Amino acid sequence: MPKRRLQTTLSEEAFRIIEKFKPDYGGINEVIEAALKLLNREDRNLSEDDILLIRLIRDLDFTGCGRSQYMHLICGDIEKAVKESMMETAVEWFLKKPFAEIELEEFLETVKRGWKVLNRVDYVEITKGDGWIQIFCEHTMRRREVSEFLAMHILNIYEKYYKGEWDVVKSISTNGFTLKFYRRV
To answer: 110-137 pLDDT, tens per residue?
Structure first.
């Protein structure tokens, strides 16, 4: 797309902000263009509460979960907290298609992104090979129960949608878990 010339003056504060971000974006034009794209995004209605929520997750190590899951956890029903969690709905909402059309890899990649955003895990890695795919998750809560709880979410969806095509090998520890899925022949 052709560029258009713009000549203007900026306050000292605005210029300092541009200088601060120049190394990340490459130059003044790129900083201004990135800022304009940010201003023009569709969901530009971040409220102060939205920003507070982001800061709680990032700065104070909060995590997020659905209300019904939270209720089941408070009531001590971990099985219901997993089986009735919003994971299935959230994945379909994010991918904009029903689970019948979602491949195992798509599901795992979506979980990876969601868990990172919600601060559920500290590290997630998905690797693939010929006929297999593996998810490795690590967390700093250092409790086997946490690892089991997280793995149960994926295994619950696996049982519903992928068990017919894939076998799974599980490894769960106090620091995280590995689930390796092998395509059935």
So the answer is: 999 999 999 999 999 999 999 999 999 9
At 107, the pLDDT band (50, 70, 90 cuts) reads very high
Rg of the chain (C-alpha set): 21
Alpha carbon distance, N-terminus to C-terminus of the chain: 49
pLDDT value of position 130: 96
Q: Which residue shows structure tokens 């300092």? A: 16
Listing DSSP states for the chain in one string gives -----------HHHHHHHHHHHHHHSSHHHHHHHHHHHHT-TT----HHHHHHHHHHHHH------HHHHHHHHTT-HHHHHHT-SHHHHHHHHHTS-GGG--HHHHHHHHHHHHHHTTS-SEEEEEEETTEEEEEEE-SS--HHHHHHHHHHHHHHIIIIITTTEEEEEEE-SSEEEEEEEE--
* Among candidate residues 63, 79, 62, 81, the one with its CA nearest the CA of residue 71: 81
Beta bridge partners of 138: 123, 176
Pick left, alpha or beta for residue 30 (phi over 0 → left; psi -120 to 50 → alpha; otherwise beta): alpha
CA angle 91, 112, 88 (to 5 degrees): 20
How far is residue 78's CA from residue 56's CA, in Å, rounded to a whole number?
25
Report pTM. Answer: 0.77
